[in-house]
Design a protein that fits this description.
By secondary structure, the protein is α/β, with parallel strands linked by helices. 47% of the residues lie in helices and 12% in strands. The protein has 2 domains: 134 residues, NAD(P)-binding Rossmann-like Domain (Rossmann fold, 3-Layer(aba) Sandwich); 95 residues, N-(1-d-carboxylethyl)-l-norvaline Dehydrogenase, domain 2 (Orthogonal Bundle), CATH 1.10.1040.10.
């Protein structure tokens, strides 16, 4: 099994490249403009706006797997456009510890184009001994955005609490730590205030909002979450 990782110089691509190397597979790293070698599986790990740009450079044989966060229905649209098998395999990596996350995932989600190719991806990840969920690409695409949007929503809640506490001279950190004894509230989540940033949360929030708008839906909660977090970030 020969694997090509396109965008291997990035955070996601690098972690993906090193993961499969560690698992014992033959892996080739390709940058966005490189000549991509003939492989069995091509993992696309470039920014979402560049996914369509690299598609014409990928050899016609082999399975294409999009790791990038893309709007729902993108994988199916590209599969029809290029008349080939394309799966979606979202990453759930934190930038500072991407390699650790890649080697120790809480789960692997496979948006399969068909049962045959879904089984190929499941076999690739089986050595990680974690739950592997096989579903439709449109679901895996939405799961990625939903997970990050949930994280942003938790942050916005604690940003509001922190703002109130600061105005009243109350220690917000202690409030969060004590509140986290409630099993519904995680200790990690209760310390999230003021940390809306990084490479994923803001862009994935905007991506979900744009997707909702394309369906003529006004996502009131997501708009509010974005507004709260933007205000806090501008104040700090």
């Amino acid at each position: 099994m020969l694997i090509s990782v396109i965008g291997y110089k990035g955070v996601v691509g690098g972690a993906t490249y090193r993961l499969f190397k560690h698992l014992g597979y033959d892996v080739i790293g390709a940058d966005k403009g490189d000549c991509i070698e003939l492989s069995d599986v091509y993992f696309i790990c470039v920014p979402e706006w560049a996914v369509a740009d690299v598609m014409p450079w990928i050899p016609q044989s082999g399975l294409v797997v999009i790791r990038s966060s893309v709007p729902p229905l993108t994988t199916e649209r590209l599969a029809k456009q290029y008349l080939r098998h394309i799966c979606h395999n979202p990453e759930f990596l934190h930038q500072a510890v991407a390699d650790i996350d890649a080697h120790n995932p809480d789960s692997v989600v496979i948006g399969e184009c068909c049962d045959f190719h879904g089984a190929i991806l499941e076999a690739l990840y089986k050595p990680l001994c974690c739950p592997i969920v096989r579903t439709q690409p449109r679901i895996s695409e939405t799961v990625k955005l939903a997970r990050n949007n949930y994280g942003a929503t938790v942050i916005s809640f604690w940003n509001e609490i922190e703002t109130i506490c600061r105005a009243a001279g109350i220690n917000a950190y202690h409030v969060g730590m004590i509140a986290s004894f409630d099993p519904i509230i995680t200790a990690k989540g209760s310390r999230f205030h003021g940390r809306y940033g990084g490479a994923c949360l803001p862009k994935d929030m905007k991506q979900m909002i744009r997707f909702a708008h394309s369906l003529n839906i006004e996502p009131k909660l997501l708009n509010a979450v974005e507004s709260v977090n933007d205000e806090v970030c501008n104040d700090t």
